[in-house]
Design brief:
This protein has 13 helices and twelve strands. The chain has 315 residues and is of the alpha+beta class. It has three domains: 67 residues, no CATH class; 124 residues, 2-Layer Sandwich (Phosphorylase Kinase, domain 1), CATH 3.30.200; 100 residues, Transferase(Phosphotransferase) domain 1 (Transferase(Phosphotransferase), domain 1, Orthogonal Bundle). The radius of gyration is 21 Å and the shape is globular.
Length: 315
């Protein structure tokens, strides 16, 4: 049965309409479960209308409970094709299944060699690969020998961690380069090389978009606000990205996406999260210290998000 609360919400288009809706919902003592259905970035409207801390905490708790279901993203589920054998595990988003993707999954190493290699190292190899008329962004997590495979047999592969992180961001409304497939090369329970294949996004990173000699553009305030929404959503969701450098925000058609999810971690409670949060925000703040044209857009963002930090001067 459709939820009247969500049905009404989806008819609203302007910020003022959404703000009034939240205000009236608070007056009507709507249940926390209703507010928890909305993307976390709209919790700012709850705060703006002085929602009690108990309500905000309960909304956050309900979302963290729902988050547990995302662990099923490494199992068979609706909307994804799941193939597991002695030699590999492959999960693909059915929206993206096509001959080009199938060919790439058959010989990913060959496509990496033939593609444009962006980064190569002992731990990972990153490339843009072309299959037919389609382009994909591939990240390969290299095997480091038998002991590494033995350890990874007990915990998720690094590719699986990134796959889960991308599903998590999608669930809370944080835009990222959408993953289309996960591939693990195995020998029985031993995990060897693993891959995450993303849609290829034509973009530039935020440091080039906002800084490095760029002239201020009319779109800058809007894009900065959307980055602010991303950071606020991560905070409300108790998520640490792990490396908020400007290069990990890519801009596509004046729309920011958060990438490089290898170190992303979600915490179950505020106390443990807040011990890690200052480091995450400090890394973001360092992007703009020597960028006088971009800094005015992000200094208010950083100041607002640092209110829970004991020593904001460390940023």
């Amino acid at each position: 049965m459709p939820d009247p609360f969500l049905q009404k919400w989806h008819t609203l288009s302007s910020d003022s309409q959404k703000s009034e809706f939240i205000y009236q919902a608070l007056l009507a003592n709507e249940r926390p479960e209703h507010f928890a259905q909305l993307p976390p970035k709209f919790d700012r409207l709850l705060e703006a209308h002085n929602a009690p801390p108990e309500l905000l905490n309960e909304v956050q708790r309900i979302r963290k409970q729902k988050e547990l279901k995302l662990q099923e993203c490494l199992k068979p589920r609706t909307g994804f094709s799941y193939q597991k054998s002695w030699f590999q595990l492959a999960i693909t988003d059915q929206r993206d299944e096509c001959p080009e993707l199938s060919n790439l999954l058959t010989e990913p190493d060959a496509f990496i060699r033939q593609g444009h290699i962006i980064k190569t190292g002992k731990a990972t190899t990153v490339a843009v690969a072309t299959s037919g008329k389609k382009q994909y962004f591939i990240k390969r997590y290299n095997s480091r020998g038998f002991l590494y495979s033995l350890t990874r047999s007990l915990i998720p592969s690094r590719a699986a961690v990134t796959w889960y992180a991308a599903q998590l961001l999608e669930s809370i409304g944080v835009p990222t380069a959408r993953p289309v497939a996960l591939l693990e090369k195995r020998w029985g329970p031993l995990k060897q090389t693993s891959f995450v294949i993303h849609e290829y996004v034509v973009s530039i990173h935020a440091m080039k978009y906002f800084a490095e000699g760029a002239e201020p553009q009319p779109e800058w305030p809007v894009v900065a606000k959307e980055i602010d929404d991303i950071l606020y959503t991560l905070k409300r969701s108790l998520i640490i990205h792990g490396d908020l450098k400007g290069q990990n925000f890519i801009i596509q058609n004046h729309r920011p996406l958060l990438i490089d999810l290898d170190s992303l971690a979600s915490y179950p409670c505020s106390s443990t999260y807040l011990r890690q949060y200052p480091k995450d925000l400090a890394r973001f703040a360092r992007n703009w210290r020597d960028e006088p044209q971009a800094s005015p857009f992000f200094t208010p963002v950083i100041n607002q998000l640092s209110k829970d930090i004991v020593d904001p001067s460390s940023l």
